[in-house]
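Marked as duplicate of an earlier ticket. Keeping the data here for the record.
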Amino acid sequence: MATVFIPPMMRDLAGGQHTVEVTGATLREVVRNLDAAFPGFRDLIVQNDHLRPGLALAVNSVLQSTGLMASVPPDAEVHILPAIAGGAGGHRPGVSRERTVEQADRSRKPSAPAGGNPQSPGKWH
């Protein structure tokens, strides 16, 4: 079974759970089984039988460029990731679109301003 990590804005559908266990050999099957267990998930994740714009799915920390067709190995971790606004607005030829979840997390973390104290976040002096 795959462990699906539920983003905060979708947790109400899963009864407040942060993770749920779901079967499926592809992301399409995982989403279908997630929706069977917690009705409403498919409508939030899928639009016109494709991954809804503004969302990404990662399997074992790798963002999937094949959408719902991506394979899901047994005991995989599946992350539902809402898109973050901004960026260059287009794909650059020769640049891989697949990034690990860790790379995405690193790019989201703010850096300390000049003279800031990284040991006390939120209290920059």
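See parent ticket for discussion. Confidence is low (pLDDT under 50) at residues 91-97.
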